[in-house]
Amino acid sequence: MFTTAPPKSATANTPLDLFAAIAELKQALNAVILAHYYQEPDIQDIADYIGDSLGLSRQAAATDAEVIVFAGVHFMAETAKILNPDKLVLLPDLNAGCSLADTCPPDQFAAFKAQHPDHIVVSYINCSAEIKAMSDIICTSSNAVSLIEQIPEEQPIIFAPDKNLGRYVMQQTGRDLVLWQGSCMVHETFSEKKLVQLKITHPDAEIIAHPECEEPVLHHADFIGSTTALLNYVQRSDRTQFIVVTEPGIIHQMEKLVPTKQFIPAPATGNCACNECPHMRLNTLEKLYLAMKHRQPEITMPEATRVAALKPIQAMLRMSA
Questions:
Q1: How far is 262 from 111, CA to CA, in rounded Å?
Q2: Of 11, 99, 214, 314, which cross-links 185 as Cys (Cβ 3.0–4.6 Å)?
Q3: pTM recorded for the entire structure
C-alpha cells in the first residue's frame, strides 16, 4: 500500500550531477539504496546492494539504515517494510507494480485457498502483502526447490502465484502442487521460434533462462536458474557467448563481471522491447533523487497485514539459512 503523493516532477532545480546529489542525501538521511538486477544501469551503479528477491530480502532484514530506498517494484518495497516497520521505506515511482502480482487478487485467492483447507500455501515473493499474509512460507526462484523439498511429502501444497515457476518446481522435486494460474508478462513474451533462430545464428552460445519462462522456452535452455544463479553461472562457464532468457537488465552486471564474454538478450514475440519489464523501468535516477529529497512516496500497510505477512517471510529466511 502506498501513502502520500508521488515525488514532484523534475524542475530546473534538479541537480546536474545526480550521483553526487544522491550520495549527499543518502548520508544526510542515513539511507541505504537497494536495487534489483532489472533496474536501469545508472541505478544499479549507485545502489549499495544489487540482488535478486532473496538477496534483497536478506539485506532489508539486516540493514541498520533509517531509510530504505527500494529501486524495484512495489512488492519488493512492501517486503522491506514488512521486515522494517519502524523505518521509512521509499519507492521512486508509485506505478512500479508487478504483472505477476496483479494476476493474484487477494479476494479470489482467499476463495481458492478455502477450497483446499488441508493445504499449506507456499507463495513466490512476487506477490502483494495481502497474499503473503495468507501464506505459510514465502519463496524466491533461488530457493523454491529447496523449500519445497523441506516440507513433508504427505503435506499437500498450494503454490502461488506463478504457474511456470510452480511447474518447474514440480519437475525438479517430483511433488504434486496445486498451482494458482498466474504468470509474469515479461517471461511469457519470449519467442521459442526466435530463440531457436538465434541459437542457429550463434551455435556456440549457451542458452540460460529464468524458471518463470514457459516450458517450451525452458526446453532449449542449457542452464535454468534465478537471476543470481544466472549471474554466477556465466562467471564459471567456459563458454564465451550466452543467450540470456530473462529481463535484460541483468546483462549490465554480467558485462561488468565478465567483460570478455558476449551476452545476447533473447527476443520477444513481435518487434518490441517486451522482454523489458515496463514496471521496473519506471524507476529512474531522477525519480530516485526526488523520492529521497521529498521523503515520498512512502510504503505503509495495516499492522495486522504486516504481522501476518512477516511470519512466512521469516519462515523463508529461516529455512534458507
A1: 47
A2: 99
A3: 0.88
Neighbours of 248 (CB within 10 A): 19
Alpha-carbon distances of 76 from 42, 70, 241, 264, rounded to whole Å: 19, 7, 31, 27
Please check whether residue 57 is in contact with residue 34, taking contact to mean a CB–CB distance below 8 angstroms. Answer: no
Confirm if 255 and 41 have CB atoms less than 8 A apart: no
Three cell numbers written together for 227: 537471476
**Three-state secondary-structure class, residue 161:** coil
pLDDT less than 50: residues of the chain:
2-12
Can you list the alpha helix ranges (DSSP code H) found in the chain?
Answer: 18-29, 41-46, 53-62, 74-83, 99-102, 106-114, 129-133, 144-150, 163-173, 192-201, 215-218, 227-236, 250-257, 285-294, 303-319
| CA gap 56, 34 in Å, rounded | 7
Interacting residues of 276 by C-beta distance below 8 A, sequence separation 6+: 186, 247, 248, 249
Per residue in 271-320, pLDDT tens? 555 677 777 888 999 999 999 999 999 999 999 999 999 999 999 999 99
Alpha helices (runs of H) in 242-281, residue ranges in sequence order: 250-257
CA-based max dimension of the chain: 63
pLDDT in tens, 3-40: 444 444 444 467 789 999 999 999 999 999 999 998 99
**Pair 262, 208: CB distance under 8 Å:** no
Q: What CA–CA distance (Å, rounded) separates 285 from 71?
A: 9
What is the DSSP secondary-structure string of 109-122? HHHHHHT-TT-EEE
In angstroms, rounded to a whole number, what is the distance separating the alpha carbons of residues 292 and 33? 10
C-alpha to C-alpha distance for 248 and 246, rounded to whole angstroms: 6
Q: Report phi then psi at 262, rounded to 5.
A: -105, 135
